[in-house]
Amino acid sequence: MDIIRIILAIILPPVGVFMQVGFGKHFWINIVLTLFGYIPGIIHAIWVIAKY
User: Fold this and answer.
1) Nearest CA to 11 among 46, 52, 36, 50?
2) What's the structural domain count of the chain?
3) Is the pLDDT of residue 2 over 90?
4) Could you tell me the CA-to-CA distances from 17 to 30, 41 in Å, in that order?
5) Are 9 and 46 in contact (CB under 8 A)?
6) d(CA 17, CA 26)
7) CA atoms within 13 A on the CB side of 44
8) Rounded to whole angstroms, how far apart are CA atoms 17 and 9?
9) How would residue 51 be classed by pLDDT, with cut points 50, 70 and 90?
10) What contacts 21, CB < 8 A, 6 or more positions away?
């Protein structure tokens, strides 16, 4: 299941984070990072998926 989340994190980073942790602080941090730049959003999403 983590493979699917990682693929979603590459395509749409907030969706991958949402599937892992729900509407928590990491989701909102990822939204902000994705708005500032696509790459920081991807890095954060993969980090969240790997950690949790």
Assistant:
1) 46
2) 1
3) no
4) 7, 10
5) yes
6) 7
7) 24
8) 7
9) very high
10) 27, 48, 52
Cβ 17 vs Cβ 27: under 8 Å: yes
For residue 46, count other CB atoms closer than 10 A to its CB: 17
Question: Is residue 6 within 8 Å of residue 16, measured between CB atoms?
Answer: yes
Q: Which residue has the tokens 């599937």?
A: 19
- Separation between Cα atoms, residue 46 and residue 29, nearest integer Å: 13
- Provide the pLDDT confidence category of residue 1 given band limits of 50, 70 and 90: confident
Domain residues for 26? Answer: 2-51
Task: State the pLDDT at residue 34.
Answer: 97
pTM: 0.93
